[in-house]
Target: Dipeptidase
Amino acid sequence: MAFRLLASAALLLPLQAAHAASDGSGEPASPEVVALQRDMITLDTHLDTPETVDRPDGWSIMDWHDVRSDYSQVDLPRMKAGEFDGGFWAIYTPQGPLDAEHYAKVRDFAVMRGMSIRLMVASYPDQFELALKADDAARINAEGKRIVYMSIENAYPLGMDVSMLKLFYKMGVRETGFAHFRNNQFADSSTDPDGPKWHGLSPLGLELLAEANKLGMIIDGSHSSDEVLDQLIAKSTTPVVLSHSGCKAIYDNPRNVDDNRLRALAAKGGVIQINSYGGYLRARKPNPERAAAAKALSAEMGDEANMTAEQYSAMLAKRREIDAKYPETDKPTFDDFMKHLLHALQVVGPDHVGIGMDWDGGGGVVGLEDVSGLPKITAALLKAGYSKDDVAKIWGGNVLRVLRQVEAAADPKAAE
Model:
């Protein structure tokens, strides 16, 4: 995949800026808040960390990394520091041409990315465990291990055969999205510059929805258009989740959801998981020199998937040079993230809101650059007047409740 983070507006601050005191940095969590975080199950519904795990430079999930040096945001030591228990580890594939040749290539890529997640778990069985049912989360957490649910961010790799979804279900996938940045064979994207292709789900997308309901997968509406979301809410036999989205009332961006749709989502038992991708939190000042440098580096280096370790290390060094030469001066802050979270809570209440930060996929804000600082969110929620029970629902209880409903509604014969 070619530089999703580099080409986005979500590049991280240089070392000195990231540590500087600034408005919106969030209050440090007290020992009492950290202890509370430890006592609840803390899940995030959208982790792009499998892409980091597959880096060619020898990056290890077992080591503490510096977000300002190698741009990664999730590893085991930082998970432990932030009392972060795990979540949904995404099989992400960028949108490509809609033809048989590309379907075959992206299918193989997605299968191998799923195997990479399984390999990470198998390589460190005392630290990670694959979760297949909602009740697995509490058991894995009680055993002191990190929880690994699997998800599909873009259904593009399924090609024209929705029965392929069964393969991914058997691999361990329990959540599926439909589209990403562009329209595909299943659904319209919220951000395709050409506008809608299907005005919602395609006929094949309706088949995919039915298949996911039968298998027992969470239906994820993030990245799909408003029309798609309306149809998912209306037609799904189970509640719909937005695995990493924001609130249009706070920032009018196509990736964000308006209040009426939030209420419709909640009325059917669904949950919006608030993300921290800077481009979706608020408007930002253009930085054309930085954007041009990032674009030039992407063109020079090519696709990360084809790099050697030496090429990847060189690319990281050049990214750091861009940070130093063209620092990002208008990066959204912790307060910007909290505005979306608190607004969603005000509109639909703590039974229908969760957290999906988009770690390792462009998420992170000033004051919360990686998972080591997650208790800051808990501290802010408590300060805003939410109870410990409310916070536990937001951090994991709501999505696990949806997963239980999904499991109960599944056809037990569908996965045979």
User: Anything to note?
Assistant: Residues 311 and 358 are 26 Å apart (CA to CA). Residues 4-409 form a domain with the TIM Barrel fold (CATH 3.20.20.140). The two ends are 33 Å apart (CA to CA). The chain is about 45% helix and 10% strand.
